[in-house]
Amino acid sequence: MHIFSEGHTAIKKHLVFRDYLQQHPDAMHVYGRLKKKLAQAYVRDIAAYIDGKDDWINVTIRRAEEWALAKGISYE
């Protein structure tokens, strides 16, 4: 869960990421496996866990934004 102030710049990225994963089960499963792997490797190091997800998330957000644009989905 994420909580943001109204109008926060990260809201759009989180929504497009969520919607992309919901529509792309393969990507959702890859993300789930990555999170489990990192959680096991970094039980007591939340910063390393978060860092381990960053590259995958950033690539996926770019794909999600392209997907949303192609589908005519707007988060404005």
> How is the biggest beta sheet arranged?
none
Q: What structural class results from the helix and strand content?
A: mainly alpha
Give the overall form. globular
Distance between the termini: 21 Å
Could you write a compact summary of the structure shown?
This protein has helices at residues 10-23, 25-41, 46-71. It has 76 residues and is an all-alpha fold.
Fill in the keyword field for this structure.
76 residues, mainly alpha, Beta Polymerase, domain 2
Descriptive notes:
The chain is an all-alpha fold and 76 residues long. It has a single domain (10-71), classed as Beta Polymerase, domain 2 (2-Layer Sandwich), CATH 3.30.460.10. Helices cover 75% and strands 0% of the residues. The longest helix has 26 residues, at 46-71. The protein is globular and about 40 Å long.
Helices and strands, with pairings:
Blueprint: H1 10-23, H2 25-41, H3 46-71
